[in-house]
TrEMBL record:
Protein name: Transcriptional regulator
Species whose genome carries this gene: Ewingella americana
Coiled coil regions, renumbered to chain: none
A GO MF label: DNA-binding transcription factor activity
PROSITE patterns: HTH_ARSR_2
Pfam families reported for this sequence: HTH_5 (PF01022)
Amino acid sequence: MLKQIEAIDDNDSLELSMAAVAAAMSDPSRIKMLCALMDGRAWTATELSIVADVAASTASAHLARLFSEKLVTCLSQGRHRYYRLAGHDIAELIEMMMGISWKRIPAPQTRAPLQLRATRTCYDHLAGEIAVRIYDVMVSRGWFEADGNTMTSEGRKQFQASGVVLDTKTRRKACCGCLDWSERRFHLGGDAGAAFFTHCEQKGWLTRVPGYREVTITSSGKAALRRLFDIEV
């Protein structure tokens, strides 16, 4: 009988944990903070309080809640404390929630800035219309297996030829289709998505807009996308 009770308790612990995470994300101010952290960089509590439009003390309480549920991590450096998402899995969860929530909003009523819809960061990889178009080309050229979670030999060959460095020892998915919240289609996620974004940044093909998720494609980036994927920006 005791073992049966323990089993029930163990089963309940998962649901209770899920409820706690959902509750931590249920506040609009905390959601604004999490969305801001989707740019992949670390933010101070003061910066996040401005984003959420709340007092500094309120922001600290919100961040403590997010930290306790392991949604964000905290790094102390000098007099400042910096917060960032706890990992790519949290970023994928937020992006998926954006996609689900976006479906509830009629398209004509969207207030998403056009530039943000075109190109933005999704934690550590590229998102938006351009990213979706790039992924479509990669899929059509057979760079991924049918499940989308494994690169083909052709895909690895093309990444290597382009100078994109993949992490063969990563614990995350080698690649995956990440649901794009504004386009409602997939862009490239996983290690391949992160590696491709890093490569584009190092090449100077794109630049980040400081303090926001927006990304700008440079003139050399436009030329590269035209040459590599036959995409006009």
